[in-house]
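Re: the 93-residue chain
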Amino acid sequence: MPSVNVCKSNQRRDRNQAKLDAAGKVHTTEDRRKHEAAQNAIQCTVCLAGFGATVGLKELQTHMENRHPKAPKTFQEMFPKYTGPAPTTAAAA
């Protein structure tokens, strides 16, 4: 039976976890959940694309202009969890 990528991912995760355990570092499933939550901290309300917590304003504006040019939403309506510097009025409209 051929192996699939999911099996390889699980095996790799187990090997890495064994290495960390041997080194005395402990990572739990709670740590993984926190990491995944940080990876998708900011989410577009139109297409539900996730962005990391450290994403820049320029990247979000580029997403808004390229993916949703005709969307009737403002920048703050599209990315309500973004807490960085406010966009300029020309880019937000």
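Strands lie at 42-43, 50-51.
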